[in-house]
Design brief:
Layout: E1 2-6, E2 17-22, H1 27-38, H2 40-46, E3 56-59, E4 69-73, H3 82-98, E5 103-107, H4 115-129, E6 149-153, H5 158-183, H6 191-205, E7 208-212, H7 214-219, H8 223-229, E8 237-243, E9 254-258, E10 260-264, H9 285-299, E11 306-315, E12 327-329, E13 335-337, H10 345-355, E14 363-368, H11 372-378, E15 382-387, H12 393-407, E16 410-413, H13 418-421, E17 431-432, H14 440-449, E18 456-460, E19 466-467, E20 477-478, H15 483-494
Helix pairs in contact: 1-2, 3-4, 4-5, 5-9, 6-9, 8-10, 9-15, 10-14, 12-15
């Protein structure tokens, strides 16, 4: 979608649909001047307009070039922040889809937000809500694929609005990249095919991608990744993604680690199909988020040295599959007793987290659809975040929570008290790979904590990574959760005042 910014009079915008967000307590002062510019049709539409969130009143202007126009309710002015603008513009995108509009103009409303923040939020919401995944639709040739052009109408500070609009488009498109990877059929994203797709994305957007084959993984003694892969006819891969700009403010990288289980049957601890295995193509959502974030960082030229690590395999019950009772020797040398082969994500992440030590990283962030317990605890709107008690843990949690609030990818912290680690004690190995029914998300994080010796954040995104019913600007399927969160967090991290 092409996105531009203009200060032309609203009446001169030659578009299929003109969208005008209005706060409910501002309607009395905002609507009369707009009616003077657009025509009496707006005044008649205003009779039915309350300004409530989600409201959309469509009308046909009689004194403007736009073929259709709509008033969009924002709720009370005091409640209008970036997330409200995203949902309002997403409602406009729904209306554009209903009318199959090719060109859309979106008026930037007066709010307490600066023009850059408002521009980014409006464009983000609109582009994200316009996302379509039609790759496998055989009857969709020539079908409506969303607007071709979005024009942001800024009353003032055009340059700031343009900066925000450009960033919003890039971040939304990178989120779309992550969604595409998640939504792709499992047979087209085996570990090898996923690696090829990531190499293509890296080449297009300017970050480096190095792919290890199974022989290198064996040399590195990644016992967790190799064990999970044993039941599969497809070999594993391990990807290193690197964004190293000349003006990077850090000598030691921030490392992002994404779980890349391209399909999870549960292995010999086989999952039920309904509402479980039937959407396990999404078990590589953490990997997808890392790829999307790396794309956005490169396109935005964020001055930060960042490395992405993605261990990729599927988890199948093949004839050589690993079994409950196996004791694995991990990349770190630590031994793990396997009691459930469906607790595989933590095994491949553990090897990647152990390998990350060679970078002597400033910070490591992993993302994974790791536990069903996260969904039970926090649902599908909020991810769980945990950290180790090392070098500014409270500051890390505060920063990632703030990035979640501002980006719309919400996170909430969970405790990491020592007593949770006792649930992982094994009688035959250093630790076991499950901790029982209690505190499943926390014990999974405590497992991973055994493999880190640096500042670390763990994000369990099982709930928000893939949704079955559409939400504002999040269609059913892969959501790309984590891309916007990481970009916001890392842009703040790269700012000298934040460091």
């Amino acid at each position: 979608m092409k996105v531009s910014v203009t200060t032309l009079p609203l009446a001169d915008l030659d578009v299929d649909l003109l969208l005008m967000p209005i706060a409910e307590d501002a309607a009395a002062t905002v609507l009369p001047p707009l009616a003077g510019a657009i025509g009496e049709a707006l005044s008649r539409a205003a009779d039915d307009f309350t300004g409530a969130p989600g409201e959309a009143i469509l009308f046909y202007p009689d004194a403007a070039r736009a073929r259709r126009a709509a008033l969009l309710g924002m709720g009370p002015s005091a409640a209008v922040e970036a997330e409200r603008l995203r949902t309002v513009s997403a409602r406009g995108a729904e209306l554009a889809a209903e009318r199959k509009a090719a060109t859309v103009a979106l008026r930037v409303p007066a709010t307490t937000l600066d023009a850059e923040t408002a521009g980014q939020a409006l464009v983000e919401g609109f582009v994200l809500a316009s996302y379509r995944f039609l790759r496998y639709k055989t009857d969709e040739e020539g079908a409506y694929r969303g607007p071709e052009r979005l024009v942001l109408h800024a009353a003032d500070d055009e340059k700031a609005a343009r900066r925000g609009a450009d960033r919003g488009r890039i971040v939304a498109e990178a989120t779309g990249t992550a969604r595409d990877l998640v939504n792709t059929s499992p047979h087209e994203k085996t570990p090898t095919l996923l690696a090829k797709a990531v190499e293509k994305i890296g080449k297009k957007h300017g970050f480096e991608v190095s792919v290890w084959d199974k022989s290198v993984i064996e040399e590195e003694k990644m016992g967790g990744l190799l064990a999970v892969n044993r039941g599969s006819p497809e070999p594993p891969v391990f990807m290193e993604l690197t964004w190293l700009p000349e003006n990077a403010v850090n000598a030691k990288p921030v490392v992002l680690v994404g779980k890349g289980v391209v399909f999870d049957t549960g292995g010999l601890s086989l999952k039920e199909t309904k509402d479980s295995m039937d959407f396990m193509k999404a078990d590589m959502s953490g990997a997808a988020a890392v790829v999307g974030a790396m794309e956005a960082l490169a396109r935005l030229a964020v001055p930060l040295y960042v490395v992405g690590l993605i261990p990729a395999t599927d988890n199948r019950p093949g004839e050589n599959a690993y079994v409950p009772g196996d004791v694995l020797v991990m990349h770190s040398g630590k031994t793990v007793e396997v009691l459930n082969t469906d607790a595989e994500g933590r095994l491949i992440l553990a090897d990647a987290l152990s390998y990350a030590k060679i970078y002597r990283p400033e910070l490591v962030i992993d993302l994974a659809t790791l536990t069903g317990a996260q969904v039970v605890a926090l649902g599908t709107e909020v991810a769980a975040v945990m950290t180790n008690d090392q070098n500014g843990a409270a500051d890390r949690l505060q920063a990632i929570e703030a990035a979640g609030q501002r980006s719309g990818d919400l996170v909430h912290p969970m405790p990491m008290h020592d007593h949770y680690g006792k649930l992982l004690e094994s009688t035959v190995a250093d630790i076991k790979n499950i901790g029982g029914k209690e505190a499943g998300s926390i014990t999974a994080a405590k497992f991973l904590e055994h493999f880190v010796d640096y500042p670390w954040l763990h994000l369990d995104i099982a709930g928000p990574a893939f949704v079955h019913k559409e939400k504002p600007y999040r269609p059913a399927g892969g959501t790309g959760f984590g891309v916007r969160l990481l970009v916001k967090f890392l842009r703040d991290y790269a700012h000298p005042k934040k460091r």
